[in-house]
Amino acid sequence: MFGNSKRLLITGLTIILLGIPFSQNAVVLAKEQSKVAQNAQQQNELTAKQAINLTVEFNKVSNYVQRGGDYKKDEYKTFSYNKKIYRYLSSSIDTKKKLKSYLETVLVPPEAEQYIKSRGIIEYNGKLAQIEADGGSLLQWEKATAQYVKTEKNIVYYRLSVPVWNTSVKQDFIVEYQYVNKVGWKISKEPKQEKSTAITSKIAVELAAKFKVVSSYVQAGGEYGPGEYKTFFFNGNTYRYLSSKIDTKNKLVNYLTQSMTPSAAEQFIKDRGIIEYKGKLAQIEADIGSLEEWTKATAEFIKTDKNTTFYRVTVPFGEMKQKQMYIVEYQYVEKAGWRVSKEPYWELDIPGNVNPISNLFNYLLVDTKIAQNQFLPYSTFNVGEFKKGIKKVEFIKLTEIGRSGSQVEYIASFNVEVENNYYGPLMNGENKMYFTVQPTGYMEFKIDQVGILNMY
Hints:
By secondary structure, the chain is of the alpha+beta class. Helices cover 29% and strands 35% of the residues. Strand 9 and strand 10 form a beta hairpin.
């Protein structure tokens, strides 16, 4: 019994002794698994603040590359290739290895490769180069807010809302992040703007106001540094060079496209008569001011036609707070957002009850003062002289024959009966006259030019 008991006891001890190492192994294994799980959890927990900081850093890196890096003295060099002007990147990023290493501080390797490809960076004579252009942006990434969207496989998605300039406008971007082992979080796909078809009245006003700020800046020639303002005589006009910030085509277009579409920017340059002279942009020496207060304007949606959205923007001006109505067209630009697609133009859809031509004929033989008031103040047309010898006038119809950004052209048809001793330009029966009409305020229009059409 004793022997069996002892054997059982020993057996029991053996079981207990063997059980201790098994338990310790289990605890160690559990700790290791917990640590791995904790690391995995930490990896997946990319905070909103981290997401924003990474995107801010990416934009610093991107801006650095887009301007070619920081050039040392005499390092900036250009060349012509495929009918385009290229510049070599600065020595800090002028090889594929250097550039990839720099980009991979914020991007995963495959996206760094894609970035180089998408920016059109080429290798030429053993060095990297890009088309000569400097990109600008009104986006304030450091003031962005981030909202978690989803995690899909090993990619974390965030939506970043980024303020534009000093307006209340915000643009939304989807940014993808990936955890790189032993390195940390990186951007796996550069920010992509969420296309939104929503443009509000508030955004319409702010964009139109920004357009006018940009327009005024260019019309003033920009901001001149000491000794920078220079003029020259060309084709009978005095021109001035634009300031150094906008004195090349690339610089000017980049500045203009902060508020307008690329095609609108090209048209703007053409309309302003900006020329290139001795390698720099210049314009006729003139400064144009305006009393219009675009920041206090109101906007009313009109329609959306294909890819263009139209708003009627009413702008106060002058001490008497008169109002002028404009039509402003907007288009959505990929990776940029909404932009003005055509320079604001006057609202020229003139209702019949306020058309000055109709009013002219209605009051011609009734009230000379009211009839004369249908013309612009500087008009030389004398209603009193024109009406002499006319016994009766009957207005028939008004036909629009053309319009520009500032006026509408009409042909007015009317019947008259004249006295026997009438020596004016009209004849008994039907007559036709040519008119141009311009807006002068909110739903106010005046006659500018007048002409008589011969009926024979």
